[in-house]
Amino acid sequence: MNKAQLGFGIDIGGTGMKAAVVDLDKGDLASTRYRIDTPRPATPAAIAEVLRDLVDHENWTRALGIAFPAVVRAGVVGSAANIDDSWLDINANELFASATGLEVRMVNDADAAGLAEMNFGAGRGRTGVVMMLTFGTGIGSGLFMDGVLVPNTELGHLELDGSDAELHASARARRLDDLSWKQWAARVERYLKHVERLFSPELFIVGGGVSKRHDEWLHHIKIDTEVLPAVMGNNAGIVGAALVAPAAQVDV
Ligand code: BGC
Prior knowledge:
Blueprint: E1 3-12, E2 16-23, E3 28-29, E4 34-37, H1 44-58, E5 64-68, E6 72-73, E7 76-77, H2 92-100, E8 104-108, H3 109-120, E9 129-135, E10 139-145, E11 148-150, E12 159-160, E13 163-164, H4 165-169, H5 171-176, H6 181-199, E14 203-207, H7 214-217, E15 226-229, H8 236-244, E16 248-251
Parallel strand pairs: 1-5, 5-8, 9-14, 14-15
Antiparallel strand pairs: 1-2, 1-16, 2-3, 2-4, 6-7, 9-10, 10-11, 12-13
Helix pairs in contact: 1-2, 3-8
The structure holds beta-D-glucopyranose (BGC).
């Protein structure tokens, strides 16, 4: 009999909450992904209730990792750019632990996606400074040095041309401003050049839903730094979340 290292990851997003058991040696899902619509309004109590359903659905009884679209320091939510304001200063570790009876580790969603890419995806084996950027409702960032995460960098909120960068260059901005891929790529290029000047990374990994369509826009971007599309797709948040919770050793 072999031992598998399993974890459970939950990805809390603006429209859906997704969960699965994760094989932490391979970075693969070890159960079918289960999704429930994010409740509206997405208050702490409403989210905690859905979270309990996700855990019950899988009968998971060990530690949980949870990816969340905000600053999270030692479990405490420190920003609310794209989430309900009632989350500010909430200790999500405690809230979710009491909702589920399980040990909980919280991680910022872009940090989680970056952990998944660094361990199993586009950043695997890469050293030096690597910057994960996710383009979705906002822009999330995950900064890595020799594979070690510096959490909560929040580079989507850099001020660029007089406004918050994510308002201009996120995937949502592409839809709201009705931009072609090429027009949007010009905004992303401007943003990447700014981040490049500040951090001089060796590699950018670009993720979020738009990474699936990278052939539409990535070739328009001309910068000195290497840019790779994320490869973990929809599962990046779940896998990264599972990576931050202590693994369960299970016989297989
Ligand atoms: C939030 C970040 C988050 C990013 C992507 C930003 O608005 O401030 O914490 O990682 O959106 O969801």
